[in-house]
Design a protein that fits this description.
The chain is of the alpha/beta class. Helix content is about 30%, strand content about 30%. Strands 3-2-1-4-5-7-6 form a 7-stranded mixed beta sheet. Helix 4 (about 120-130) links the parallel strand 4 and strand 5. Helix 4 packs across helix 5 (about 165-170).
């Protein structure tokens, strides 16, 4: 059982997480016009707090995650709401292959700081997008290691990201029209942690 397997049952009980995913979705919508023929991929989808916003707006969403327990919670939600246009896949974004030329939009919320080689994943995401496809990644800006409690640091590979460096990874992967901006601040135990949204387009 990994750390997220253990957290799965209680994940949605923290209002901060629900709010964070909703904020990210709203900001994605400012960058991307969601169309009903689109195929979307959500990496590190968890219990679907971001993914569920897309289900009535696009043709199909694939949610991937390496925590079976998180995916099981989401599978239950999909079943209960009779949502049919979503596939879930147990998938380790650090090692498993992404399909080529398969998605119109790849999104991710608060997952990249758990990825060992984010620049490499961004390149693989580029290959997985169709021509004209878009990437939208939301995650923490550089923090001092206090966002996660000490007992929850396993699997945290980055204390947030420097926005310029993250943007350069998108450019190295050949994304164009790239932007990165602070979209909101997470209020956690009286401290504010800025979150960015990184955006790019495949030619
Ligand atoms: C902070 S949670 C965010 C979940 C969801 N995106 C949300 O906004 O609520 C990070 C998610 O990334 C997943 N994750 C961590 N490392 C991963 C990896 N290497 N491959 C795929 N998913 C991973 C975890 O299992 C967890 O569900």
């Amino acid at each position: 059982m990994n750390r997220f397997d253990k957290l799965a049952e209680e994940w949605d009980l923290e209002p901060r997480r629900v709010l964070m995913a909703k904020n990210t979705f709203n900001e994605i919508q400012k960058k991307v016009s969601l169309l009903e023929e689109m195929e979307v991929h959500d990496i590190g989808t968890g219990t679907g707090l971001l993914l569920l916003n897309f289900v009535d707006k696009v043709r199909h969403i694939t949610g991937t995650d390496n925590s079976k327990e998180m995916l099981d919670i989401l599978a239950n939600k999909l079943k209960q709401s009779n949502i049919k246009n979503t596939s879930l896949k147990l998938f380790d974004a650090d090692i498993d292959n992404l399909p080529i030329n398969s998605y119109d939009l790849t999104v991710s919320n608060m997952t990249f700081h758990h990825i060992q080689k984010p620049a490499d994943l961004i390149k693989r995401i580029y290959s997985s997008l169709r021509s004209g496809g878009k990437i939208c990644i939301a995650d923490l800006e550089t923090e001092n290691g206090t966002f996660h409690s000490k007992q929850n640091l396993k699997g945290v590979y980055h204390f947030g990201f420097d926005k310029n460096e993250f943007l350069s990874w998108l450019e190295e992967a050949n994304f164009i029209n790239t932007t990165i901006e602070t979209i909101f601040k997470i209020d956690k135990e009286g401290r504010k942690f800025p979150v960015f949204l990184a955006y790019g387009e495949k030619t």
